[in-house]
Amino acid sequence: MRIGYVRVSKEEQNQQLQLDALNNYGCDKIYQEKVSGTSKIRPEFERVKDILRKGDELVVWDIDRLGRTTLELIMFVDELNHKGILFKSLSQSLIDTTTETGEFVFKLFALLAEHERKRLIRRTRAGQEAARARGRNGGRPKGLSPHYKEIAPMVIGAYKQERSIRDIMKAFKIPSTATVYKILSENDIQFQDYKKIKTTPK
């Protein structure tokens, strides 16, 4: 069975163009979707994936109708290939797994995509290892603890009254100047404003 898939965003006006092309190609059934290409919610696309079976052919007007990224698209078509489902893009003659040439081109794209995926994984791991070597864990920096969130308004008030960093640390039992700066920065106090704060001599 030949299954056609049409996607247009609200700003596009080429829905009929896609429909005419798919009908002329001989699609048995055509599914239409009106969503942006960046949208993650595409019910008709999910329906198409559910009904496709081995030996079927998925047809689109252009490959950008399917994936939000090149890697996502290639992974999807590779999945179709493994299931024995053919794929054809009418406006890109080389993207056609119903022919030997088209299948070769697609496999070349798939190899390049896999190489890029592995390269990104290596870079991510290298970054994590470098962070650990500097004594930091991976992921986002931790925010303020509940205690510091609770006293933040009082710390900011003391800062606005031009109290010194040392006085603020002593008054609120804050162990380091870095923590004071963090409390201020997480409450939209710009870094340059720290210059106004002077530590009192011992």
Automatic annotation (TrEMBL):
<feature type="active site" description="O-(5'-phospho-DNA)-serine intermediate">
    <location>
        <position position="9"/>
    </location>
</feature>
<keyword id="KW-0233">DNA recombination</keyword>
<dbReference type="GO" id="GO:0015074">
    <property type="term" value="P:DNA integration"/>
</dbReference>
<dbReference type="InterPro" id="IPR050639">
    <property type="entry name" value="SSR_resolvase"/>
</dbReference>
<protein>
    <submittedName>
        <fullName>Recombinase family protein</fullName>
    </submittedName>
</protein>
<dbReference type="GO" id="GO:0000150">
    <property type="term" value="F:DNA strand exchange activity"/>
</dbReference>
<dbReference type="InterPro" id="IPR006119">
    <property type="entry name" value="Resolv_N"/>
</dbReference>
<feature type="domain" description="Resolvase/invertase-type recombinase catalytic">
    <location>
        <begin position="1"/>
        <end position="135"/>
    </location>
</feature>
<dbReference type="GO" id="GO:0003677">
    <property type="term" value="F:DNA binding"/>
</dbReference>
<dbReference type="InterPro" id="IPR036162">
    <property type="entry name" value="Resolvase-like_N_sf"/>
</dbReference>
<feature type="region of interest" description="Disordered">
    <location>
        <begin position="124"/>
        <end position="146"/>
    </location>
</feature>
<keyword id="KW-0238">DNA-binding</keyword>
<dbReference type="InterPro" id="IPR006118">
    <property type="entry name" value="Recombinase_CS"/>
</dbReference>
<dbReference type="Pfam" id="PF00239">
    <property type="entry name" value="Resolvase"/>
</dbReference>
<keyword id="KW-0229">DNA integration</keyword>
